[in-house]
Input
Amino acid sequence: MSSHSQKNFAPLKFWLIKVLQNQKKRLIISLLLALLTAISAMGLLALSGWLITATAITGLAITAGTAVLLDIYRPGGGIRFFALSRTVGRYFERLHSHDMVLRVIAGFRLTLFTGLMDLPVQQLRNTQDSEWLSRLTADLDNLDSLLLKLLLPPIVVLSSVLLLAVFISFFWLTLGVTFGFITLLLGSIYFSFFTRKTSQISSDYARQINQARSQTIEHLQGQLELQAAHLQQADQARLVNSLSEIGKSQLKLNRHIANAQLMVNICHGLLVIAVAIAALFAYQNQFVSGPVAVMLFLAVFGLGELLLNLPGQLGQWGKTRYAAERLQPLAEHAASEKTTLVELERLSMMLADHPKVISSIDTAFAFELNPSECLLISGRSGSGKSTIANILAGLEIPDSFITPYQLLINGIPLRIDQTQAWHKQIGYLSQQNSIIAATLYSNLTLGLDEIDEQQLWQALTLVELDDWAKQLPAGLHSWLGDTGSQLSGGQARRICLARLLLKESKLILLDEPFNGIDLEMAGRIWQRLYPQWQEKMLIVLMHERPAFFPTIDNQQMFEINLDQR
Amino acid sequence: MKDQQALNKAGRLLLKQLIQSQRSRLLQAVFMGVLATIAMIVQWYALAHLTYDLIIQQQTFAEQSMLMMLIVLSLILRSVLIRAQEHYSQLASLHAREHLREQVLSGWRQTSALIHSQRSPGSAASQLIEDVESMDGYFARFWPQQLLAVLTPLLILIVVFYYNWLAALFLLVAAPLIPLFMMLIGWGAEAVNQRFFYQRQRLAGHFLDRVKHLTTLKLFAAENEALTEVEERSQDYRQVVMKTLKLAFLSSAVLEFFTSVAIASIAIYIGFALFGSITWGPAADITLFSGLFILLLAPEFFQPLRNLSQFYHDRAAAVAAASHIATHLPDKDTNSPAEDVFELTAEESSSTLIATNLGIGYQPGDVLQDPINLKLSRGQCLLINGPSGCGKTTLLHTLAGYLKPLSGKVLLNNQPMGKEAIRYLPQKPWIINGSWAENLAVLAPDATTKEMQKVLNQLGLESLIAYRNNDLGSQLNEHGEGLSGGQLQRLALARVLLSPAPLVLLDEPTASLDTESRQYVLAALAALKPRCILVISSHDADVLALADYQLKFARLESD
Output
């Protein structure tokens, strides 16, 4: 029982604490505004009831000839005041609460993104993109329920019930205490039971939404192949299944909520009646006056609105907890420290027994490289070229228990905390093109502070993209489509090459640089780029040495063939 | 913005159609709601009567046991009826949304794959899933409440009128003012909400993109740029949402204000009347019973309107979502291919592909190459080569039916492209998050396990699977992590071998493949060739050897 409730509460606690740390003042203001609204609502009705009853009795008495004094102006003023305060209170409470929540979520978003940035790349690449997306956007959206539905409303209801109980106690202690005690006890029991019951359904619902989203994204990514084969509908059948699961869960959840509202309706009604009967009984036995009796049960009546919303609000518990659970590990991730690195003068690497570099199992893979030297690593697909490239780039760190390895910068091993500094010194072209959804300008100037437009054009010319760029609708500032698909493979590749040209680096690392570029153009581009990189260290990984590469006789060009070792 | 208005109109029309399909359920919900109102009226009648009897008439509880029973019964009945109302509304909403999703999916089937590729999958998915989910409020709550917000107050008005026409007048005057003001503000909220929806979609697409390229961003030390962007987008998001909310809340604040003022006025009026300060009009007839009864009914009079106002936000959101969805729905069912069963027509007697003066390109008037003429039959292979960016992929897209020819025509078995099921293998094969078997079945649905194993052997992949120890049930993942480019390409070919089609299009099948993979791929192409027409874009000499015809695309001179 206790471990279950811990599981239910712990992830939410984590985020709650963050909120309390940053938004305490705003929270308190929201609570006060909400209480003001609740009290005004109850007060409006209660005071009205009091007034009506008092005037009825007084009116009759006056007609009967008795002289009675009754101040009806002050209650009248009070009624008007409550009318106003209820409206104003609610408006500002809602505005304030929502603004607070949005700020909180924005802060969470940043925290998460920062956490992602600090995650080792290995973890990044092992997770599906659609899952990442769902974490960041949807889970964050779900987290806003934490404040608006799970925290504020129950506290407001609790406080209102307490205040009401105290108020009733002024007039009849027993009734007030009994009312408070029973309402709080029954309410707590019922709502915690309800929350527990619906929390699983609610989190299932959230999980199924994520799954459906992943599948949908997958489906869309396969359109080129599915459509030609007339298999879209068949694949959509998978989606339809997932979507109907979502529908079922939601219906189930809504049923529970509706049933809870039924219970609350009935119980609240019975409560009003019970208090009415008790109050009228008290009136008959002359503990309280008639007007007060009416006032009391009308005040309880006013509580109804708050209570009725609780099931719907608490029904979000599971969904919110699910989101909180998934996001917590990202935010908890400690920021890694980043340290500096010496300037690269000598690079050496040794790799043995790496499962993805098959040839390293028999003979260790090793090399040493100095500036102005070029190393060509050739080997068939699957021989581990990209693995070696990733290790060189600091994107993969082999487990040194399994894989003895060394990556030495000027004879000193590269440490994890130096990765960021290392990235500043290298220019890495990975096998896959990486065009971000932004302008051509942004894509070329990633991470660059100041860049002269002329340099940009120069780079574009070297990769033969200057004409193409000129005829783009907005030139350099044209948006490269959301999925970068307005580019052919070769054009995307060349943009990535141009990016490298613009970056300062001591080591240039190219993994299949001419993917998607025909041989002749590749040759021409190489003839222009190679001289630019004369003084740097150059490592090129390709499945075979192209004709236009300098021969290996050249002092400064080395080749390691992963297949012939 | 004329465009926006047209969009809204389309959205509202869509909503109307969906409502129509669920009409009976929704009306049942409303009926339950009306019955619940009657039960509520009885309940408060009884309570007011009880109070009056006890306080003014000085009767005892015992004498009023019938009345007390009536109170309890009507309370329970009312709650049950409200529950029944929920039941019908929820069902109506569920089915309406199912219906809408069907339409979206059907629309996707009719949209060219190229258009799909220009849209971020994240935002499209968000539309199908989140946006449609968000319409729940409109169907389940807002729509029934529209009717209830008229019927319930009407019933109450009649009852109140019976006891005191002046109080009824208060209510009557307050009532129309509220929707009027709400509408005024609501219109503004709708417009702002449109922007908000678009923003959210863009936000989803933006995040996916930055996450996908996080490694690149880190390599180029551009993380902080990205972080700043994320922060800025969050701020924009917050500000847009607050704008929407300010308006939405304002409209409900107006309602609250009028409601509170009306209740207060009624209370004060009744109070003064009972006191004897007011003697004209119906004031003389007021008693504690009628006064209390009216006071209890007053908030109930406004409650449906308050609910409606709360749900109005749902309406604005639904219209915005519907408008965006309507944008992506095709105008009318453009000769949709009859429910697509897996067509395997490769074994049919003959297939021919004929192109006559075919001009290809993306923009009208911007033909990428000189007109193309070809005639290919089953067992023949066409190779396309040329510099990158010259239209090789464009030709493949046109042959796949994703692009309309700019001039001339091209027919497969005398039908326009896209009519018959063919196979298209892009440069990067599509992989799903599933097992080998699932990855094969997704494009070769009729293949048996035995056939799959045979074909995987044929492509030299059996050792890979054996190494993973799990046979066809072992997992791949989205990036095809753990598989080399060559192995992925072989998987793609395995699919085609398992379910060939009359025409198979391949985009650079042997680019950047290791020797071993290349051999397998070439062998697979050779095996495939007799069964279909092959059109391959490639620079590979060995593929050229396979080809019967070659189409050389030249670079167009720049103007």
